[in-house]
TrEMBL record:
The chain crosses the membrane at residues 102-123, 174-199, 206-222, 228-246, 267-285, 297-317. It comes from Marinobacterium halophilum. It comes from the Bacteria. Keywords: Membrane, Transmembrane, Transmembrane helix. This is Putative membrane protein SpoIIM required for sporulation.
Length: 323
């Protein structure tokens, strides 16, 4: 097909799209439901024009039309995605505040044992070994040795990206155990949250007593804001399940479980997202021994303030839940 014949056949479509795109400049809405199909046709025309070595003027015209169409389509998609993420975040925060009594119970189950075990492990070596084995204690000392190039779990030949995957798997495993434990009348959730609180307290108290707090606290403070808060939130989701089974109210247990699960899942979405953030920070930020301690502590404190404010005091969670 000659270039003139090619232009005569398809020029009406090009003129139509040019008019629609120019008229809607600055507007992210797709002109009509036929636009995606018409856009794909023009992409095919551009490909043919290049293959057939048509004039530079024609190729430039089609290329410009394709670029304008691409911008309109994917700008719309990206804005829609951001709107969906914003709605999901608002739903999570609303659920978090509506279920604050479960969050408070989960927080107490986690924090109080951690404080008791932490003080005990700091004051008494035998108290430490009620939770940690001697081998575990020695491994912790090796992990937080100030001479390490990377802090935390041993890396050897593994990369930070590998550790990112490891932390995701480990953290989300804890989260789902805390959530799924609710099916055992909440006892499984209590056990998971309680154990993690005791373990954190034992590690913190022991490392502080042996003088490794100078590496441990800068390591844990950054990602801990997201990770520890997420464990509490996932624990709250599990407690909701357990309470629905123990005290279904006027509903049958199965109906009560369904209703509790629909609300608990909203908490889990937010908790799992926070665990992804925590895993990223733990792999790429917390483990670095090159950053000054003051910077790590300052940024970590900022993370804690931001997470607590955003989850419990920001205005986003005061909106009505989208229907």
């Amino acid at each position: 097909m000659k270039e003139t014949e090619f232009e005569q056949r398809y020029s009406p479509l090009w003129l139509l799209l040019e008019a629609l795109l120019e008229a809607g400049r600055g507007d992210d809405k797709v002109p009509d439901e036929h636009f995606p199909e018409q856009y794909r046709q023009v992409c095919g025309h551009l490909s043919m024009a290049r293959q057939r070595d048509y004039s530079d003027a024609l190729v430039s015209r089609l290329n410009r039309l394709v670029m304008l169409g691409h911008h309109r389509l994917y700008q719309r998609d990206s804005r829609a995605t951001l709107q969906r993420l914003g709605a999901a975040l608002a739903t999570f925060l609303i659920a978090l505040r509506q279920q604050r009594r479960y969050v408070l119970c989960s927080a107490l189950l986690f924090i109080l044992p951690a404080l008791v075990m932490g003080v005990g492990a700091y004051l008494s070596e035998s108290f430490t070994y009620s939770m940690l084995s001697p081998d575990q204690a020695a491994e912790l000392e090796a992990m937080y040795d100030p001479g390490n190039a990377r802090l935390g779990a041993e890396r050897d030949s593994e990369t930070d990206l590998f550790m990112f995957g490891y932390y995701i798997s480990h953290n989300i495993g804890i989260a789902f155990k805390a959530f799924a434990g609710g099916i055992f009348l909440g006892l499984g959730t209590v056990a998971v949250v309680l154990f993690n609180g005791l373990y954190l307290g034992a590690v913190t108290g022991y490392l502080t007593r042996v003088g490794l707090g100078v590496t441990f606290y800068p390591f844990v403070i950054g990602h801990g804001a997201f990770e520890l808060t997420a464990i509490v939130i996932c624990g709250a989701a599990g407690l909701m399940i357990g309470h629905a089974l123990i005290h279904p109210g006027r509903w049958g247990r199965l109906d009560a479980l369904r209703q509790a699960a629909s609300e608990a899942v909203k908490l889990m979405y937010g908790g799992v997202f926070m665990l992804f953030v925590a895993a990223f920070l733990e792999a790429f930020w917390s483990s670095s021994s090159q950053l000054p301690v003051a910077v790590k502590l300052s940024v970590g404190a900022l993370f804690w303030l931001s997470v607590l404010w955003f989850c419990f005091f920001s205005s986003l969670g005061t909106r009505r839940e989208p229907r």
